[in-house]
Amino acid sequence: MTRNSPLVKRISIVVGAVVLTAIVSMATTLGVSRSIEGNATAINIAGSLRMGAYELLARSAADPTEDQSTTFMAGLEAYQERMAHPDFNRAIPDADDHPLAKQHQRMEALWLEELRPALIANAPNSTRVTEELITVTERYVTEVDKLVSMLEHRTEARVDLLHLIQIISLVFSILIIFGLFLDIKKRVLRPLSKLMDIAVAVGEQDFSHKANLKGSDELSQLGAAFDQMTSELALSYRELKEEAMTKTRELEKSHAALELLHSSSRSLFANHDLCSGAIPMLQDLEQLLGIGPIRLFLHDKNSAEPVQAITTSTKERPFYCKDHHCDACLVTPEVFDELPSEGNDGRRLLLPIRTPGQLLGTLEVWYPASKGLSQTARRLLETLSDQLATAIFLERQITEEQQLTLAEERTVIARELHDSLAQSLSYLKMQVARLRRLDITGEHEKVHHDILEELSTGLNSAYRQLRELLTTFRLKLDTPDLATALRQTAQEFSERLGNDVKLDYRLPPQTLSPNEEIHTLQIVREGLANAVKHSEASEILVQVLFESPRVQVRILDNGKGLPAGNQPAQHYGLIIMQDRARTLGGKVNVLNRDTGGVEVALSFVPKSRHLITSEAAGG
Fold it and tell me: Stretch 280-296: mean pLDDT, rounded?
């Protein structure tokens, strides 16, 4: 219990008041009762003094015998002793100015000065009572009556005072008890009732009840504590409820995201295309988690910067877009401006796309700075990065295995062609050479010569095509990438031309598959070979450009151009280039330039939908 306790103080004051009232009442009652103690005896003695006075008067008139005289004197002494009785004298106040004391003094004075001497004087001399003695006796009895009357009035006054004190004490006690009841009702019962209501309401998860108790006593302080407790409980309950709802929403999001990841992983692994397999999944994940945009960068050993592979939102079609009928990643400028970026309130999370011992790329996730990124969303994105890493790694491995299988098949085909068809063509060429050496004259000489020329031309063309096929089947891109191979090719033909062959290469990394790079390289080599051999050019420029979605390859020279502005008929080199272009899904045009010289133009859309190559897998 604290030292400053108003409730205890009030109870103590009330109890003290009740105790004080009881003490005062008992003390005054005791005092009054003690003050009237002996009054009854005094009244009785005073009353007997009246009768005694008349008895003495009667005895004084009796026969004056010795016995009567003795009896009279004994009665007189007894009367004198009765007047001196302690209880009688105790009833007389000690103060001389008190009316009762004065009356007692007058009575005693009348007795001592008049009546007693008169009785003594009358007793032995006469047998009759004189008029004077009767008068004195009556006067004395009157004074005694006054004294008795005063004693009675005084006793009654003391009894009335005692009654008044008891009534006052009773009333005061009743008032104190009534006040205590009202105070307890107001200060204790009502606050306790409110506190009980609050306790019951809190048990029913209702924190709106308030005690609102005024004052500084314990229950008021307890009520204030209850009010503060309910406020804090309401806040805590609301926060816990909001947190539970948030956790529930996060779990629902996690469940939906896991379902999304599960359903999308199959298409990601089966589709062999990051754009069509990953972008719908990432866009659904963005909408689910309230994040975005998301970008995927792949690491390439031939590029100083990571190469963007996919993005979920862009205003312009990405350079790597292979399907211009797909608008999955394209958004309106208004929507794009609302997305987080480096210039506004966005924050960026970078997650590595890695397998054990190999870093394949980076997943860049933007999210609003005001909302942040929950741990659940972070774990989901980490799971996504693991899935992407597995998909990219498996796709690279599959692509590498396919290329290895294709290379082995081409090697087998090349060996079979070399061992069968090439030897047969060589044999036929030797037979044609033998026929040329025969001396045939006569009318069939010209026909024979024409047939040999046609056979020789046909065999040379077939042998050249076979050699190109063998070169195609055996060719591998030994350089790190197409750009390096083209630079080496330009240097090679610069030495053959005697002048620099310029190269303008502006193709984004990982735009072409290895097979497309090989065919592109062979077309460039064939075009350079024709330019060096036939054009008599002093300047040659090779351009490899990306004009989305097409790849444009041009070999430009300043030579003499094509005769009559047309391609030479049945030129096997051009036929091979056209065959390669058709393999790429494009076409080759050979035209004279307006400024002089020839332009060999290759244009095609890369067929490879995926961006994961075996060359990148080695990086």
Answer: 80
Of 251, 266, 281, at which residue does a domain stop?
A: 266
Q: Which among 34, 36, 43 has a CA at the least distance from the CA of 157?
A: 36
Tokens of 170: 């009773």
* Interatomic CA distance for residues 570 and 457, integer angstroms: 11
Q: Is the residue at 200 inside a domain?
A: no
Residue 521 domain flag? yes
**Total number of domains constituting the chain:** 5
Q: Output the DSSP codes for 134-187.
A: HHHHHHHHHHHHHHHHHHHHHHHHHHHHHHHHHHHHHHHHHHHHHHHHHHHIII
420-463 pLDDT, tens digit each: 776 777 777 777 777 777 766 666 666 667 777 777 777 776 77
The answer to the question of residue 119 being in a domain is: yes
Question: From CA 252, how far away is CA 263, in angstroms rounded?
Answer: 16
The residue out of 172, 195, 218 marking a domain boundary is 195
CA distance 291 to 287: 7
Residue 410 is assigned to a structural domain of this protein = yes
pTM more than 0.70: no
361 — phi, psi (to 5°)?
180, -165
Q: Is the pLDDT of residue 61 over 70?
A: no
- pLDDT per residue as tens digits for the range 557-597: 988 887 765 555 446 567 778 888 888 889 898 888 888 88
Strands 540-547 and 501-506: parallel
DSSP symbol at 188 = I
**Length of the chain as a residue count:** 619
At 332-344, the pLDDT tens digits run 666 665 565 555 5
Q: Stretch 171-198: mean pLDDT, rounded? A: 81
Please, which pLDDT band fits residue 552 given cuts at 50, 70 and 90?
A: very high
What pLDDT digit, counting tens, does each position of 80-129 carry?
A: 777 777 777 777 777 778 887 888 788 888 888 877 777 777 765 555 66
Q: What φ, ψ does residue 392 adopt, rounded to 5°?
A: -65, -45
Q: Which of 607, 568, 608 is nearest to 585 (CA)?
A: 607
Do 390 and 454 lie in one domain? The reply is yes
Token pair of 361, please? 């790329």
**Is 287 strand, coil or helix?**
helix
Report the side by side order of strands in the sheet with 307-311: 307-311, 294-298, 358-368, 346-355
Domain interval for residue 114: 6-195
Query: Do 369 and 396 have their domain in common?
Result: no
Query: In three state form, how does the secondary structure of 225-269 look?
Result: HHHHHHHHHHHHHHHHHHHHHHHHHHHHHHHHHHHHHHHHHHHHH
Say whether both 350 and 402 belong to one domain. Answer: no
DSSP label at 567?
P
**What whole-number distance in Å separates Cα of residue 579 and Cα of residue 593?**
23
> Token pair of 341, please?
């970026």
Q: For residues 589 and 567, give the distance between their C-alpha atoms in angstroms, rounded to a whole number.
A: 9
555: closest CA among 530, 584, 579? 530
215 contacts: CB under 8 Å, gap ≥ 6: 6, 187
- 603, with CB counted inside 10 A (0-12, 13-18, 19+), is middle
SS3 516: helix
80 & 107 share domain: yes
Same domain, 513 and 459: no
- The reply to whether 407 and 334 lie within a common domain is no
In this predicted structure, what is the pLDDT of residue 542?
A: 94
Same domain, 28 and 160: yes
Both 507 and 585 in one domain: the answer is yes
